[in-house]
Amino acid sequence: MKGLEKIPMLPLRGMVVFPSMIIHLDAGRARSVGAVEQAMLLDRRILLVAQKNAEIEEPTPGDLFSVGTIAEVRQLFKLPGGALRVLVEGTCRAQVRQVNALEKYDEVEILPLHDQVTPSLEMEALTRGVVHRFEEWVKATRKIPAEALVSVAIIDDSGRLADLIASHLNLTVEDRQKLLELIDVGDRMRKLYAILVHELEVLAIEHKLGTEVHKQMEKLQRDYYLREKIKVIQKELGDQDGRQAAVEEYKKKLEEKKYPEAVQKTIEKEIHRLEGMSGYSAETAVIRTYIDCLIELPWNEATEDSIDIKKAAQVLEHDHYGLKKVKERILDYLAVHKLVMEKSSGKEDEWGKAPILCLVGPPGVGKTSLASSVARAVGRKFTRASLGGIRDEAEIRGHRRTYVAAMAGRIMEGIRRCGVKNPVFLLDEIDKLSHDYQGDPASALLEVLDPAQNCTFTDHYVDLPFDLSSVFWIVTANDMAGIPRALRDRMEIITLSSYTEQEKLEIAKRYLLPRQRKENGLTAGNISLGVGVIRRVIGEYTREAGVRELERKLGEICRKVARRIVEDGAERVSVAAKSLEDFLGRPKFIHSKAEKEPQVGVVTGMAWTELGGDILPTEVTILKGKGTLILTGQLGDVMKESAQAGLSYIRSRSKRFKLPKDFYEKNDIHIHLPEGAVPKDGPSAGITMATAMVSALTNRKVRSDVAMTGEITLRGRVLPIGGLKEKVLAAHREGMRTIILPKDNMRDIEEIPKAIRDQLEFVPVTSMDEVLDHVWVTP
Ligand code: ADP
C-alpha cells in the first residue's frame, strides 16, 4: 500500500500515550528493546501501541489496538539486565495498517491521523466546559499540582488541549484508547467532557461517602469513647455508690446543723476531697471516717442543767441503798456548784472550774452507778471511758491521722457517743494509768481536766479544738495512791468502803434481786428466794468488798429458775438455802482463810488491797541453820524490812522471851504468807510477823480469833496504819472476834458500822509488848 510509513513498534502494557505527552517508558522485552534500537538507528521515531491485554508477553497483531501514537525517542538509558529506559514525546496519532514481524522487532506500516477540527460555538462551549470541569477536578482531587492548570490554560489547540487533559486524568486503558481513536476533536471533547463529569460525580460521591464514612467512624469512635467513659463513671458510681450518697448526706447534714466555722470549713474541704477522689482507694474510707467523726461530734449540742438539790437527793436515794455519807457529800458538792453557777449567771463553763469529783473505793461498791445517778440528778447525759491499763497517750488524745487506722481518743469517743458537749463524764480507774515510752497518758489527762486548757482540747485525730469546759467530770479509783499527784490536787475525793454483810443483804433484796428478776424475764411471783438464801450466797459463794459477784450469782439463780419455769411448766420456783447447791453448785468459801485451831507460829494479819480488805494468815517456821531470814509469798521490800525490824525487836528482848542469846545464829527463820500469787507490801504486817516469830521461837499457840494490824519499829513501838475500816470488815467477815490495832487508829473505828463494832473487841496498843499480852491461848 502506497503512502504508508514503516516504523518500529513498541507495544505498551496498561497504558496509552497521547500526542504531545512526554513520558518515560521502560522496554524490557527483547522485541521491544529491538524496536527501540532500530528506531535509534533510523530517525528515532517509533509507534507506541497499547496492548488490549497487558498480561500478554508476546502480542500478535490481534492483541494490539489499531490506533497508536507516533513518538520520538528523546533520550535512552540502558538499564541493568539489558532493558532500556526511554524518554519519548508523542507527536501524532497513527493507524496501524500492517504488522510485520521482523527478526528482532515488529515493524508496522502506519497511516498518520490528523485532528479534524471545525471551529464552532459548540466547540468553544465544549472546550470551556472541559476546562472548567478539569479545574474542578484538579481542585477536588488535589492529585496534580495547580501548575498543570496553567499549562492547560495557555493551549489554544483544542485537540492538544483535550489530549493534555486526558493525559492527566486517571483513566482506564479503554477510555484512553477511545479518546486516542477520536480524530474528530469535537467528539473527543464531548467524550472527555462526559468522562470529566462522570469523574466529578464519582469524586463527589466518593467525597460524600468519605465524609459519611468519616462521620460514621467519628460517631463510632465518639460512641465508643462515651461508652467507655460511662463505664468508668458507672463503675465509679457503682463502686462508690455509697460514697456519692454519703457526699449528699454530708452536705445535707452540713446544712441542717450549725457547726463552728473552722469545723464547717474542714468538713467542706474533706467532702471536696472525697468527691475528687478517683476510683476506689483506702483513702476514701479514711476520709469518710474522719468526716463522720467531725459531723457526729456535738460541737454545739448541750443539755439544760436543772440542779434541784431536793430532786437530786431523791434520785440518789432512789438508786442506792445506804452510802449515807457519800450521798451527803455529793449533794454538798452539787449545792456549792449550784451557788457558784448562779453567781456567775449560769455560765456553763463554771463547771470546769469546780473540783473534779473523785470516787475512791473497792470494786463493786457503786461508784459507777453513783456517777450515773449524779447525771440523772442534774439532768445531764452520762458517758464513760475506762482508763485502766492505758499506756499510750494516744488512747486519750487520739492518733494523728497519718497513722494507719487512726482514731479519736477515748475522751472524744465518749463525747461523740453521748451526743452533747456537757455530759457527766466518768473516767474509770484513773489509778490504773500506766506510762511508758508511748508517752505519758497522765499528762494528757491533766490537760483534759484542767479548766485552763480543756476549753480548746485538741484531739490528734479530730485535729480541731473542742470545748470540754462544760463537762462534769467524775473519776473513780480503787486506790488513792495510784492517782497521779497533779490530778489529786484538783479533786474532791469521796471514799466508799466495803459493804458489810447486812448492807449487802439489803442491797441484794432491794436492788440486785429485783433487777436480775426483771432482766431474766421473771416476776416477783415466779420466784421465792428468802433472806437465808441471800445470806448463804454472800457468805459461801462470794468474797468481795462490793456486790458485783453477788449480783452475778443472783442472776445465775434467776436464769436457772427461768429455765425450770419454761422446761417444767412450773408457776413458781422456790429457792431454799438448803437447795442452793442445785442452783450455784458447791460453795466456794466454806472454809475460812483463818485457821480454826490455834497453832504455833500462825497469826492472822489484816491487809488492805485495792479490792478491799482481806485477812492475811502469816506462818513462821524455825529451822536449824545459820541465822538466815527467809521470806516467801511475794513480799515487797517494805514488808521485808518490816520483818527484819520485828526480828531485831525480838533479839533485843531475847531475855524476856527466854531465848538463848544466839538463837538467831543457829536457826533459820522462815516467814511465809500464803496466796503467794498475790504481791503483798506495806508495813502494816509488822506486828503480825513479829508475833508469829515469837510464837514459833517460844513454841506458844496464838489465838485463832485474833486479827491484828500495825507497823513495828526496831524498839517495838506500834505505829498507825491505813485502811482500817476495810481490814476490820474483812476480819469480821472471816469470823475474827478480837482486833489488835495501833492506838492511834482508834479514831477510825467510828467509820465502822455500829452493828459490826458491837460484835468485836478492839485492843488498842502502843507497843509490841502489849500485843503479846493479848495473843496467847490461855492454858
Ligand atoms: P464500781 O463502779 O464501784 O465498781 P458499780 O457501780 O459497778 O461498782 O456497782 C456494781 C453493782 O452494784 C451495780 O449494779 C450497782 O447498781 C450495784 N450497787 C452497788 N452499790 C449499791 C448500792 N448502795 N445500792 C444499790 N445498788 C448498788
Number of distinct helices: 27
Low-confidence stretches: none
Number of strands: 26
Q: Quick one: biggest sheet?
A: 7 strands, mixed
Give the mean pLDDT.
86
What is the chains' assembly state? single chain
Gyration radius from CA atoms, angstroms: 59 Å
> Which secondary-structure class do the elements indicate?
alpha/beta
Distance between the termini: 180 Å
Read across the widest sheet, the strand sequence of neighbours is: 19-20-18-17-22-25-26
Q: What is the general shape?
A: rod-shaped
Describe what this molecule looks like in 3D.
- Strands 19-20-18-17-22-25-26 form a 7-stranded mixed sheet. It has a 5-stranded mixed barrel with strand order 1-3-4-5-6. A 5-stranded parallel sheet has the order 8-9-12-7-13, sandwiched between helices.
- It is α/β, with parallel strands linked by helices.
- Helices cover about 45% and strands about 20% of the residues.
- The model has no long low-confidence stretch (mean pLDDT about 85).
- A hairpin with a 2-residue loop joins strand 17 and strand 18.
- Bound molecules: adenosine-5'-diphosphate.
- The site of adenosine-5'-diphosphate (ADP) has 19 residues, from helix 13, helix 18 and helix 20.
